Amino acid sequence: MGHHFVTIKDIARTLNVSTSTVSRALRDTYDVNQETKEKVLALAAQLNYRPNSNATGLARGRTHNLGVVLPFITNYYFSTVITGIQEIAYNKGYNIILYVTNDSPERELAILRNLAISSLDGLLISISSSAADCSHFQEIMDHGVPVVFFDRVPEKVATSKVMQDDFNGAFEAVDHLISNGYQKIAYISGPQGLSLTEQRLQGYLHALKKHNIPVNEDWIVYSGFSQECGEEDTQHLLQLKDRPNAIFAANDRKAIGALLTLRQHHIKAGSEFGVVGFTNDPMSAIISPSLTTVAEPAMDIGKTACELLLKHINKKHFQAEQVILPGRLIVRESSGTYHKG
Q1: Which phi and psi angles does 14 have, rounded to 5°?
Q2: How high is the pLDDT of residue 5?
Q3: In what order do the strands lie in the sheet with 147-150?
Q4: Phi, psi at residue 336, to the nearest 5°?
Q5: What is the pLDDT of residue 116?
Q6: Higher pLDDT among residues 60 and 328, named by residue
Q7: What residues have CB less than 8 Å from 74, skipping those under 6 apart?
Q8: Cα 186 to Cα 48: distance, rounded to the nearest angstrom
Q9: What are phi and psi of 88, to 5 degrees?
Q10: pLDDT tens, residue by residue, 168-198
Q11: Whose CA is closest to 310, among 70, 73, 110, 147?
Q12: 294 with 255: CB under 8 angstroms?
């Protein structure tokens, strides 16, 4: 190859294997068979391959910096997750560097493409809502950067992930509404394509099935996660000829939007119309009527994700783990017993 600087891609192309296989073989990880490993090492020596200085800096774990990529920092849930991450990181002598995507897949891609990975020992990532292509995450990992995903996780990337129990949280929320007399329950979701919105949908559907309540597709609405989206979704549902009498919202901000819209229409939340959210944002206890919600273990998600990342950094053969932490239904005024208005 003359004076060409030999890369992992060159070795992968010559051996007809993936770049990730070459990367793992060079790092002597547990999931590459011995024959492939020997072929990679032999060709690397023959071609005088020299590892990328960025990746080797990471492998040696000398920077004591952890990157955190997440959609927002102003929202209660993510700010609490960051607090959990910080607690573990600082106790172990690590600093954290925040990268905020504003829930934009384009910005997320730009951030990851421009990361100075030589200055980071590893990454904690919560993906943007519309992150359809996950190849940029795999590329980071192929360069030897340990990555752990939390909350919003890509299903097709094989590494450690930490999530709340979205399925059972949603099931408990909808089961609670049904137990209080609400039979016509809508689900105002976040964007399609996220594992958490899909799991919450499945929990919602499972609760309906348990009580033999038919699914009305018109009552399943996908949009954003903001309060404004909650207001718009509820406005849409109230305009239907066959309208629901309860809402399960993908998060508290959307649920609060629903409560405000019901108030505008002089509909009494907590008796004529039930509402349950998901997060346990501090606002949920302050708004009137107070909001029934599923409390997410945000602090523990941050701590657990950071602990897993440090294990990936410090142990070459650490096997990926998927951790699901339970939520907790908190019953307040917005889901009181149904009385037809």
Answers
A1: -65, -40
A2: 58
A3: 95-100, 65-70, 122-125, 147-150, 161-164, 322-325
A4: -60, 170
A5: 78
A6: 328
A7: none
A8: 62
A9: -70, -45
A10: 999 999 999 999 999 999 999 999 888 899 9
A11: 147
A12: no
β-partners of residue 269 are 273
* Cα distance between residue 287 and residue 277, in whole Å: 13
pLDDT at position 132 is: 63
What are phi and psi for residue 284, nearest 5 degrees?
-65, -25
Instruction: Please give the Cα distance from 282 to 309 (Å, whole number).
Output: 29
Structure tokens at 230: 């909650």
- Summarised one tens digit per residue, pLDDT across range 259-318 is 999 999 999 999 999 999 999 999 999 999 999 999 999 999 999 999 999 999 988 778
* Complete DSSP assignment for 81-94: HHHHHHHHHHHTT-
Do 100 and 70 form a contact (C-beta atoms < 8 A)? Answer: yes
In the block, residue with structure tokens 């992930």? 161
Ranges 24-28, 54-58, 79-83, 337-341: which has the least confidence? 54-58
Do the beta carbons of residue 295 and residue 140 sit within 8 Å? no
DSSP per-residue string spanning 164-209 = E-HHHHHHHHHHHHHHTT--SEEEEE--TT-HHHHHHHHHHHHHHH
Q: Which residues pair with 95 in a beta bridge?
A: 65
Q: Compare 114 and 226 and report the one with higher pLDDT.
A: 226
Cβ atoms of residues 247 and 234 within 8 Å? yes
pLDDT of 43: 87
CB neighbour list of residue 188: distance below 8 Å, 6 or more residues apart: 221, 223, 229, 230, 233, 234, 237, 247, 248, 249, 250, 254, 258
The dihedral sign for the CA sequence 249, 253, 225, 199:
negative
| HSE toward the beta carbon, residue 109, CA cutoff 13 A | 11
Q: Which two tokens stand for residue 228?
A: 């404004």
